[in-house]
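Exercise: predict the fold of this chain.
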Amino acid sequence: MGDALEEALPVPDGANGYDMAAELFMARRSRIGAETVRRWARTLPRGAAVLDLGCGHGVPVSEVLIEEGLALYAVDASRRLVEEFRRRFPGVPVACERVEDSDFFRRTFDGAVAVGLMFLLPEDTQRGLIKRIAGLLHPGGRFLFTAPELPCMWTDVLTGRPSRSLGREEYEAIAAGAGLILAGTARDEGENHYFDFVKPPGS
């Protein structure tokens, strides 16, 4: 009976369900948002070091950052997605780690992106991640991430797990406490909302 119970229990997935849904994610991932990320990438000098958080298999976000001449580093918790990332971009450093556990290559960055990741994380993890990224950015560095502008909760369509946006007011407050200011917002062709935070020069 114990063996039967063990078989019935779900397999742990440290990638917020995306390791189990990796094949479906890769099949469905469109290029929505690619041009929004490209415009952001062009605010940074060529060769700037950028961290892609929740990089998945690298399409389209990592791909665009590489095309724009940035020195990319990537992190994702899904073993399967990281395998595919390495196949596509063999020269790019990528770590198979949860963002809340990663040492982020023990270095600093000129920019960081988190497209489709932030709202998958628990509230406290979101807050902690914004503070950690602020500490890793050089003065003038930028942090771009997606989340709905208003506070809300919903069910992720691929994993069936809860997603949550803390909303613009809360994200701005967390970022301000970490020394970041909101440089702007954007909305892509899929109606995804982007926050672009910057670490002021001289800070």
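Check your answer against the key: The chain has one domain: 23-198.
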